[in-house]
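Hey, resending since the last one bounced:
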Amino acid sequence: MANIDTKMKKIQQKLAQMQAELLALENQKKASQVSKDTPWVADIIDFIQTSLDENNQKSPAALMKVLVGEFGTGKITRGPREKSSKPVTPKYRDTAPGNESNVWSGRGLPPLWLKRYEAAGRSRDEFLIR
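The structure tokens again:
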């Protein structure tokens, strides 16, 4: 009998703890709900209404102009981007007359002109710039 009473007390304590947690969660939910009666929301509504009345405007476009004028667009503007690296010097050059402008730095995929020479059996080392 004592064993059952002990278990009942533990269950009642656990129930009381869970009810307290439920009450705390319900209070958090009420606190997180926003309505027109929330003080900071009422301040924003008053600000918007005052701004519109001062400018004799009633349209949504006017409202947006007022808000953007007061708070900005929220976009971050950046200056021009600086280059993070210098151009890479070429390591390979086409040796055929008239094709000396075909160069490759050795980075990324090999160019088509070099692939054709390699397919014909020539070595990549032949095209190294020394």
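Residues 2-32 form the longest helix (31 residues).

Sorry for the duplicate.
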